[in-house]
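Give me the 3D structure for Sirohydrochlorin chelatase.
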Amino acid sequence: MKKRALVLFAHGARDPRWAEPFQRLQALVKAQSPELLVELAFLELMTPRLPELTAELAQAGVTEVTVVPVFLGQGGHVRADLPRIVDELKLQYPAISFNIVEAVGENEQVLQAMASYCLGTLN
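Predicted structure for Sirohydrochlorin chelatase (123 residues):
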């Protein structure tokens, strides 16, 4: 039986308060899908980083990892850094299949929600 994990992948920052919206997003996703393992991982400056988290997921018997880049656009971190990290993890954890999806800011539904929010600030 497959054990799945959804990893919300963000940049990271020195100020721990920066992670609060990502933690709220993680809680919302968990509430909507309580049977799913939903984790946060960071590129830098915060923990866990994706390699550390993957080690924990492997220990927990996870066999499928979907990585959602919680970035507004497809910059160098999403286009180059993340695929390089995941390629290394695929070699280290061959029993785990990895899927990287589009950055949240590239998704039409997310853009529509952001546009609605922006327009709503005018009221």
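The first strand starts at residue 4 and ends at 10. Let me know if you want a second pass.
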